[in-house]
Design a protein that fits this description.
Strand content: 5-15%
Largest sheet: 7 strands, mixed
Mean pLDDT: 96
Radius of gyration: 22 Å
Low-confidence stretches: none
CATH architecture of the largest domain: Up-down Bundle
Pathway: Amino-acid metabolism; lysine degradation; Amino-acid metabolism; tryptophan metabolism
Oligomer: single chain
Number of helices: 11
Distance between the termini: 55 Å
Number of domains: 3
Helix content: 40-55%
EC number: 1.3.8.6
Keywords: FAD, Flavoprotein, Oxidoreductase, Transit peptide
Pfam families: Acyl-CoA_dh_1, Acyl-CoA_dh_M, Acyl-CoA_dh_N
Cofactor: FAD
CATH superfamily of the largest domain: Butyryl-CoA Dehydrogenase, subunit A, domain 3
Number of strands: 9
């Protein structure tokens, strides 16, 4: 038995378990680059974006220059980064705001991934290089007003008319919808009942994307309906490599993986804000960090942030090794988003009245996470996915 003779490194409040040591030099470089971008281009402005209910479209080309749009895809101007590197980027982006990470996630893991995985070579060549550069923005049309957790009940239809396809229906809660240049829309075909994906340029007659207003969450993000009023598309608009729900569900699994990381970025931002505030806020002639109950809150927040980061990193290594299953991603999303919500709510309490203002990031992240816990699979649905994996019994039907 050997005993280490070197002293352990000093504790770092912002990296309590020294997760940094588990990253490669390349992963740290990507983290630092994305963190610097967020600090320079998001942190100072995002409170105003949130208050105004918008995100500047011109942010997309800057994200393209950073190399994070479709960064985990190969070829067509994409970076070909590892899954872990992509996750690290999602963490840093969401530490800025969930809306920024959503823009990147919908672009790369939903719209671009759908074309990259299931599209024709012509579709890939036409769209992916421009989307990777942020010159073209994509959206992903699956959810409907009456079809959320059960996408198989979708009512949007695609019917043949000669060589053309006619799409008719409505999609709901679509990130990037009203600023998109292209939409990947999923519809049930009237001839055989199969679900197919369609690449729909948003200037096609009959397509419209009215923006959804009066949101109290994800306000620094564009959310829209998609209305497809007998949209006529040529035969080559269909994604040729899939004709089932496997298509959209594979895309959702890619995006959910990014959320596993991103939620912890939001949690980290809330924890760091609370830690800093507790050390500088004076009450009863001393900083509130000196009181036991505040230290307990900080300790619990640090626990969740570090535990969630390790979970995300482990899933990233599994994804890079080819051993990650969708059920694993469900556990990651369920655990990390719920943990992030707990951290955000606790941080809000530490900041007291200041916790409800946009001068601090906490209430913004807290509100955003109420959407993150619902979209791309609700917490309830992911619990049932895990339950089925544990018991072998489906509780969905």
């Amino acid at each position: 038995m050997t005993t280490a003779t070197t002293a352990p490194p000093a504790l770092q409040p912002h990296d309590y378990l020294n997760v940094d040591a588990l990253l490669s030099d390349e992963e740290r470089a990507i983290r630092d680059a994305v963190r610097a971008f967020v600090q320079d281009n998001v942190v100072g402005q995002v409170g105003d974006w949130f208050e105004q209910g918008t995100i500047p479209r011109e942010l997309a080309p800057e994200l393209g220059k950073l190399g994070v749009l479709g960064m985990h895809l190969e070829g067509y101007g994409c970076a070909g980064a590892t899954a872990t590197a992509y996750g690290i980027a999602c963490l840093e982006l969401e530490a800025g705001d969930s809306g920024v990470r959503s823009l990147v996630s919908v672009q790369g893991s939903l719209a671009m991934f759908a074309i990259w995985r299931w599209g024709s070579e012509e579709q890939k060549q036409e769209w992916l290089p421009r989307m990777a550069a942020g010159e073209a923005i994509g959206c992903f049309g699956l959810t409907e007003p009456d079809s959320g957790s059960d996408p198989g009940s979708m009512r949007t239809t695609a019917r043949r008319d000669g060589d053309d396809w006619i799409l008719h229906g409505q999609k709901m809660w679509i990130t990037n919808g009203s600023i998109a240049d292209v939409a990947v829309v999923w519809a049930r075909c009237s001839d055989d009942g199969k679900v197919r994906g369609f690449v729909v340029p948003t200037d096609t007659p009959g397509f419209s994307a009215p923006e959804i207003h009066k949101k109290m969450s994800l306000r620094a993000s564009i959310t829209s309906e998609l209305v497809l009023d007998d949209v006529r598309l040529p035969a080559d608009a269909v994604l040729p490599e899939v004709a089932s729900l496997k298509g959209p569900l594979s895309c959702l699994n890619e995006a959910r993986y990014g959320i596993v990381w991103g939620a912890i970025g939001a949690a980290r931002a809330c924890f760091e804000s609370a830690l800093d505030y507790a050390g500088t806020r004076i009450q009863f002639d001393k900083p509130i960090a000196s009181f036991q109950i505040q230290q307990q809150k900080l300790a619990n927040m640090a626990l969740e942030v570090n535990r969630g980061t390790l979970l995300a990193l482990h899933l990233g290594r599994m994804k890079d090794a080819g051993t990650l299953r969708p059920e694993h991603v469900s556990m990651g999303k369920l655990g990390n988003v719920n943990a992030a919500l707990d951290v955000a709510r606790t941080a809000r309490q530490v900041l007291g009245g200041n916790g409800i203002t946009l001068e601090y990031p906490v209430i913004r992240h807290m509100n955003n996470l109420e959407s993150v816990v619902t979209y791309e699979g609700t917490a309830d649905v992911h619990s049932l996915v895990i339950g089925q994996a544990l018991t072998g019994i489906s509780a969905f039907r």
